[in-house]
Design goal:
The structure is a single chain. With 446 residues, this protein is an alpha/beta fold. The protein has 2 domains: 258 residues, Type I PLP-dependent aspartate aminotransferase-like (Major domain) (Aspartate Aminotransferase, domain 2), CATH 3.40.640; 109 residues, Aspartate Aminotransferase, domain 1 (Alpha-Beta Complex), CATH 3.90.1150.10. The chain is built from 14 helices and 15 strands. A 7-stranded mixed beta sheet has the order 4-10-9-8-7-5-6, sandwiched between helices. Strands 1-2-3-13 form a 4-stranded mixed beta sheet. Strands 11-12-15-14 form a 4-stranded antiparallel beta sheet, with helices on one face. Helix 9 links the parallel strand 8 and strand 9. Helix 3 packs antiparallel against helix 11 and helix 12 packs parallel to helix 14. The protein is globular and about 60 Å long. The two termini are 32 Å apart.
Amino acid sequence: MNTIRATEGSNETGHSTDDLVARRKQHFLPTALTYHQEPLQLVKAQGEYVWDEQGRRYLDGIGGIVCISAGHNHPRIKEKLIAMLQNDEIQHTSMLYVSSYPVELAEQILAEAPDNITRAAFTNSGSEANELAFLAARQATGESMVINLRHSYHGGTSAALAQCGHHNWRFRNQPVSNTTSAMEPYCYRCPFNKTADSCSLECAKNVETTIQTTTHGRIAAMIVEPVMGVGGFIAPPKEYFDEVTRIVHEYGGKYISDEVQTGAGRCEGDFLLTKSLGINADMVTMAKGFGNGAAIGAVLMDEDSASSMAGKLHFNTFGGDPFQTVQAKLTMDVIREEKMAENAVAMGQRLMDGLKGLMNEHEIIGDVRGRGLLMGMELVKDRNTKEHATAETAALMDRCKDHGLLLGKGGLFGNVLRIAPPISVNEQQVDEMISVIDRSLHELRS
């Protein structure tokens, strides 16, 4: 059995990390991000592990930024892709030509969707999937206003960024017309100062207030992540979605469930969290873990949304290409046959219990939350004031990295540790993650 311990080895690429970082700064946009005070060069991956250019191994506790669901380079997926290359199978067709792979994938993903969802379209990313969902909602309703949530994130393209609830992702001249924001369902930092005992779903009811006060009374759509990813893995209760979907439909809108991070069996046993929670969605968008690292996204629609686009043309050059769609289909097969969605539930509970256990010893942990293997641990300087422990979160990530564990971070102030390993992770690896986080927290205090 592999252990989490980083191991030394020789440089496998011949490129020094410092040299590559310098060249990145010279050639790329200044918006390029890197994790860690000393950037990490990753060159190899297998299962739940990745390796740097020196041969050091790390447990991937953030799952390739929530893109790796079935594990890195799963042998079944790798074997099929190699065979396709060796057989000179066509790599690019677009939907202008007929291929079996996108058809089979559409049938398979629709079988996993809520019963009212009957149509699918493939894109290159979650951003493009959300763009298409907005387009369809506006076409179907004849309205233009889309509601988002504060602290939300839906992608890096223009219409998607217009729905972003984080100032550091927005630009001065970002077009934001026909958008409005509702209050966030952030139980730990409730904007209404409620507790679990006193909550009356004020955040959900605020959606109706937002419509009544910032629109003309009808909307095109509302887009919501079942767990708010970049926002810090904020996980509203099921009752929140029941109330919000009722309000959205009452005011004529389409409800878009953004499952770019929550889908692919990561959360509660079904392939889609929308189905597990019984969310009455009109559209579901997907990407990231859907393709296990392949550049593929999807929009799943009800018949009304899809039929409204008849008579118009919509084209995506790479959407539905053979290699991407076959990788997504095989990812679905592997997740189902190896019972990885069930594993995500069990390992998620083990992780949740372990992290909550750490709260007894580490006052810096303010909250632990999430669903399945999408777990957030919010760090605060003081549990009473809940002051954001931003620098401490970055330092904790570096400490964990030094001990062979890669994690992510999120939240408006970057003080939420994001934990989302491949859903193939096992008990020993979950326990090692908890142990390394515990050890690293102790080191921060010393």
